[in-house]
Amino acid sequence: MNIGTIFRLQIIEVKRQLSSELIGIDDGKYLIVKMPPLHTMDNVSNLLVTGNEIAVKYMYKGKIFGFESTILDLIHKPFRLVFIKYPEKIDSFDFRGNKRVECFLPAHIKIAEYVITGSITDISRAGCLFALEIHDNKASVNLFELNNEVSVAFHLPGIEEELGIEAKQRSVKKHTDHTSIGIEFLQIDSSVQTKLFEFLSKAEA
């Protein structure tokens, strides 16, 4: 991990994830991150306290890393910072190692207040490629900002219900007649994960 790395913090007691930025490291002792913005901490700010356990995920050079730790301290002046115990163990997951399956799945994504209709053209256990027609202008305000938090909803063959996944926008590529958005899955409900993995297994993912 490097200074400036974006962390996804999850308080062990709840499923809610928060974004923060790593700004300091004392090897073997602690990490310092910016306190997540107040408007993102509805109903969880009271759990961001000294002693609580957290799970952290971040991406570095195409791999997803994760570890569990404990909040050591918080300060509010002159800056709002969180001190996290230096992890004893960091796990890594090869994001690029997840085989992608080409497909055409009706889908839509939600970025802020915008809902954008399109299709998923390939998908894996870790993410997908979402395509939309280039003239979908209502998405233009926020669509092309990397690291946008997005919600992805789609249908799998043979499954009537719509499946939803919390995710993050990782790449954007403009083509002549459409735009492709690379999406990394962040939080997948266990029932959705089971259905997705079964679909990928049948497709020899």
Automatic annotation (TrEMBL):
Keywords: Bacterial flagellum, c-di-GMP, Nucleotide-binding. GO terms for molecular function: cyclic-di-GMP binding. It comes from the Bacteria. InterPro entries: PilZ_domain (IPR009875), Split_barrel_FMN-bd (IPR012349), T3SS_YcgR_PilZN (IPR009926). Residues 96-200 form the PilZ domain. Residues 3-87 form the Type III secretion system flagellar brake protein YcgR PilZN domain. The keyword Nucleotide-binding applies. Coiled coil: none annotated. SUPFAM superfamilies: PilZ domain-like. It holds the Pfam family PilZNR. This is Glycosyltransferase. It comes from Candidatus Scalindua japonica.
